[in-house]
Structures are given as C-alpha cells and as structure tokens.
Amino acid sequence: MAEAYIVDALRSPTGKRKGGLSHVHAIDLGAHVLKALVERNVIPGEEYDDVIFGCVDTIGSQAGDIARTAWLAAGLAMNVPGTTVDRQCGSSQQALHFAAQAVMSGTQDVVAVGGVQTMTQIPISSAMLAGQPLGFPDPFSGSKGWKARFGDQPVNQFYAAQRIADHWKLSRHDMEVFALESHRRALAAIAAGHFEREIVALEGVTQDETPRVSTLEKMASLEPVDPTYPSITAAVSSQTCDASAALLVVSEAALKRYKLTPRARVHHISVLADDPIWHLTAPIPATRAALKKAGMGINDIDVVEINEAFASVVMAWQKELDYDPARMNPLGGAIALGHPLGATGARLMTTLLHELERTGGRYGLQTMCEGGGQANVTIIERL
C-alpha cells in the first residue's frame, strides 16, 4: 500500500475565552494557518488536491463549509475544493485520517488538513442548545429508537466524567493533582520555547493564553459544575478556547515531484466506538485495537498525546494501558492548553510531531474521546 507523509504542521496560539483571538472571525482563524502552510512549503497553491478541516457546531461564522471558505479567505487558489468534517471532538484528527486514506489510495497527492473553532463566539453545542443549560444539550429527546435502546440514561460529558472517576477510583484530589501538573508542564514548555516552532502568531498573540498558575488550594475551593457530579469542576476539565491548526499530507510521488523532506510517516489510522452512555471511554479499547493491528506494544510508543477532555478520561486510560505518565502529554494537555473542539485533533498532532523531533523519539500515538462514545487513534513514525 502507498504511504502517506506529513511534511509540515503548525497552529495558532490557543486564545483563552474572551481573550486575544476572541474577535477573530472563524473563517479568518482558519485562513491564518492555511496561508502559513502554503507559504512555508514549495507546492503551488493551485496544485493542492483538497482541504479537509474539522469543525463542530457549524453555524454562524463556522457555517458554509469552513474548509473551503477559509482557503478562499486566505487568498489561495480558486480551483481547490474543501470539505468540513464533524466527528465531534475528533473532527480534525478524522480530517487527517481522510487525507491519509486519500493519499494511500492513490486518488490524491497533496492535501491540507486541520481544524478551527472559535468557542468564544460560538459556545459548545450552540446548534443543539435550544434553551437548555450550557453543556447539557439533549439531541436525543423525542427519538423512539434511542429511547428503546438506551432508555432515559443521561448522555452528557459531565455524567460520563464522574462515572469514570467513580469506576476507576479517582478522587477529586487525584484529578486536581493531575490538572495542576498539566498546567505546570505547559508553563514549563512555554518558558523553554518548546512551542515556538509550531505556533504562527496571530493578532499579536504569540503564545498560548490558556495555561495558568494555580494551586491545589484554589482548585479545591471550586464548586462542581453540577452538584450531581461532585468531583467534576472547571479545574479538572478542558478549557474552551479559540484556535486553529493545519498539516500538509502528501504522497511519495509528491515528495519526489516537489523535492520535499517528510517529517513523519502515517504508520496507523483507525477509529473505534464504545458505549455512548460511558461517552468518554473509547480511547481505551481503541488504543488496544490500534496497537494490536499495528503489531506494536504500548512501550513501543515514545510519546502519547491524549486529549484531556477531563482528568478522569486520561487517568483511566493511563491506568488501563499502564503507560509511563512522563511520556503522556509531556507538554501539558487540554486542561492547560485548551480544547478548541474541531481544531484539537490537528493541534495534538502538531504538538506530537514537534515533540518527537525535539526528543528524538520514533513513534507517537494520538487519541481522544469523541461524542457518541467514539475514539480515533493515529500512530506516526518520525523520519
């Protein structure tokens, strides 16, 4: 089978809610990374085969196939098409998978992939809120088929995060210690300049705005998001933010044609689903299945980037896979760096690639929980 290669990966800073990027139109936020991607590489813009972008809640400024509109707003070639993917939190990771599959099939040679989300302007699940409390949208109400299969069991991320914490015996204090370490790692990475190669500054924002100095005492003082879920607070949850990211995926023929140097090879791609009531546990079976299919063990992986939707999600994954915590989200995760929904998958892959290059690691694995109880897994080999 033909191989798919990653030639470049970059991202905007993560702008905190109502922060330095909050006024940037979603199309322009996506255009920013696409323009930088094309300018940094020798492939003429008109010779890209496709643009595949992840985005969730495609309403308002994020509507109208933002992959296509962002490309055009960047001033790039009119002939290049674009398509927008929604696999919930894994949207831009799935965009990378679609690009890799296109290249591996031989139907495309040059694909720009990535994602964008402006959560200040369009809060999470805006398309489904319809007057419901933020964070608890219910698209299942009224579905006879869903009710027949799952009854009245709650389907929301906070319920699932608490259920995971209870099942894996993770105390609120345990999760706060984990969250504090996420911020510590992110702040240390910023201070050391580890993100500088991957970030393309925008609107005067040159580094991630989301990491912050905190203490266990401050975290312990926070009220739960809902009394029903006593261990789940803002401190142990991912941050909403505004961000975009993009990668360049090409075939071997394109490498030769444009005399490109590949930075990584896509070694494995897969997606798996789990119980939607558990909602956030799919990265565990998905990782096991991916490693088995790739003929690898977890200790063959040098760096893991797993989305910190909630501390309990990542901590449960670590317990089940028995992976070295020092090599898991080594520069901090979404608790510190933010979770810009449709852009997160591309942001994680961008950071994963740069961290493999910085440390000399060979294999990196990326996974994340996604709405509907799903999880993508990507394994790359640094070249």
TrEMBL record:
Enzyme class (EC, first level): transferase
InterPro entries reported for this sequence: Thiolase (IPR002155), Thiolase-like (IPR016039), Thiolase_C (IPR020617), Thiolase_CS (IPR020613), Thiolase_N (IPR020616)
Tagged with keyword Ubl conjugation: no
The Thiolase N-terminal domain, residue ranges: 5-252
EC number(s) on file: 2.3.1.9
Sample GO molecular function, one term: acetyl-CoA C-acetyltransferase activity
Active-site annotation: C89, H339, C369
Any Pfam family: Thiolase_N
Family to which this protein belongs: Belongs to the thiolase-like superfamily. Thiolase family.
Protein name: Acetyl-CoA acetyltransferase
Organism: Thauera terpenica 58Eu
